[in-house]
Task: inverse folding
């Protein structure tokens, strides 16, 4: 059963110019609604966002390594090609966001939802994901290399070209999603839940001959 918790958002104070508001000497952002602005060319390690809503915000040439997010919501934002390596997310929701090419390697995700998002070419190698839900997302050529998963859900996603090498897929249900090819090791498929068509596709990908 899907038990991914939603973020606990109580923020009301609205700002529409993050770059003017933000001071790099104080990278701790709390209790804000950030709306209709562009965050440009920020390179900050260890920035924190707690109880924050981003609404129709564009992240342009942003590097936020080792970022911490708790109770944060992204609504119709564009985070394409953002660099969020070693991010920690707890209680975070992405709704109808553009995340093409986003880098979140070595990330830690807990109670995170991606709803109707484009994550093509996203880099999520070496991530730990617990209670994470991908709902109606475009996940073509996403790199899930060497992930550790617990309670990760995929509903009606497009997974063609995704890389699951060295990621154990036991109890992961792909049956409502689609793919034409994926990268996966045979031993990592043990206990994975697929539909009949996917079982045939996987047998071909793994070089099996079904008579």
Result:
């Amino acid at each position: 059963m899907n038990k991914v918790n939603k973020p606990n958002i109580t923020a009301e104070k609205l700002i529409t110019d993050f770059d003017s508001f933000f001071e790099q000497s104080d990278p701790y952002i709390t209790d804000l609604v950030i709306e209709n602005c562009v965050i440009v060319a920020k390179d900050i390690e260890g920035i924190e966002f707690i109880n924050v809503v981003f609404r129709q915000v564009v992240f342009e040439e942003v590097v936020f390594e080792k970022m911490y997010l708790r109770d944060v919501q992204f609504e119709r934002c564009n985070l394409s090609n953002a660099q969020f390596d070693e991010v920690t997310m707890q209680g975070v929701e992405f709704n109808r966001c553009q995340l093409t090419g986003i880098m979140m390697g070595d990330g830690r995700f807990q109670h995170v939802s991606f709803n109707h998002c484009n994550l093509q070419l996203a880099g999520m190698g070496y991530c730990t994901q617990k209670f994470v839900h991908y709902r109606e997302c475009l996940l073509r050529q996403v790199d899930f290399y060497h992930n550790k998963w617990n309670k990760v859900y995929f509903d009606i996603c497009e997974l063609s070209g995704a890389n699951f090498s060295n990621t154990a897929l036991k109890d992961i249900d792909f049956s409502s999603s689609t793919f034409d090819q994926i990268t996966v090791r045979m031993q990592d498929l043990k206990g994975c839940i697929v539909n009949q068509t996917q079982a045939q596709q996987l047998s071909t990908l793994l070089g099996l001959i079904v008579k």
In short: Residues 196-205 form the longest helix (10 residues). The mean pLDDT is 94. The longest strand covers residues 28-35.
